Amino acid sequence: MSVSDPSAPAGDLDGHPGAPHPPAAELYLHERYAISGARSRLLPVYYALKPLMPRGMQLRLRRLYAARQRRRRFPAWPMEPVLVQMRQARLLRCMHERGVSRVAMVNDWPQGHRFAFTLTHDVEGPAGIERIEPVLEIERRHGFVSSWNFVAEEYPIPRGTFERLRAAECEIGVHGITHDGKLFQSRARFAHDLPKIQDYLREWDAAGFRSPATHRRAEWIHELGCLYDSSFPDTDPFEPQSGGCCSILPFMFGELVELPITLVQDHTLLEILGEHTPRLWVEKSGWIIANHGLVNLITHPDYLDSPQRLALYDEFLAFLAATSGGWHALPREVAQWWRMRSRLHCEQGPEGPRIVGEHDGRATVAWAMQRDHVVEIECEP
Prior knowledge:
alpha/beta; TIM Barrel; five-stranded parallel beta sheet; globular
């Protein structure tokens, strides 16, 4: 299994799909910078103690610890720029080697869009199912659709739930078999749950997976066998498994597309950080947009449980709707695009650069240009 490097100028005139990626990128994408063994020691302890603590005590402890967590030096939060900087350095080096001020590449997003955004919901229990409609109504007002991830055997899913969501043009995803935090705790547990996960993917006609509590192991994730996974944050110090892949662009685990979670989760925003506005979402989105990334938000209908919280979500969607150049898509559409794009590159043709490789006509050329030692990417329509 190999990982495609999102820091590489995929599709530039020298680019070759499948070319070896820099080992440094895999260090971040696989979270190999993390202290060896820390994950396996700490996560079981956390989940062993959690049921013994009242909910209020859990939140108080997490709020106290959050001040320390947010000061973590690497990956920096809320923005970790290491792979953005690596990509810019590679593009600058390419320009300097050729003696030019710009290079052609396959645009990151289809039809000349300069960024992409996708909305996802993880349903934690019956309360989340009961709150589906108010969330859908907000999204309808902005012309948006979303993905809904359900835990297969944790709570009853009423008959007709999936049909109602698909009628609203939404997507269904698998959010694990149970939400006990043990899926990636051991190889034996992963091997036990994997066939059931794959059965539910088929039964629900689901293209994607998100691990409960975003637990993950890069060396196993490709075994899911679905189109995409979305369990890796780019940077998140607040989750039980802290860290992140440092990428605001999708990347590949073999044939599986990873869609990084690039905004802080709503539970952390509301309950741990005590925010009452979408300020942190808007500020991080601005940085992602400036760097042509993927805005990928998790919210939980379980926690969007008041008019004030629904209004906060509404305000953020209004920001996305008012921002030009964005491609709004379901996660499966983003993954399908990224898998196709990973096989494209640019060649110099008689009339200028052209895209080489099988695609559906949406791929366009973009130009990476040097301006005052900074790389800017200009998208052609």
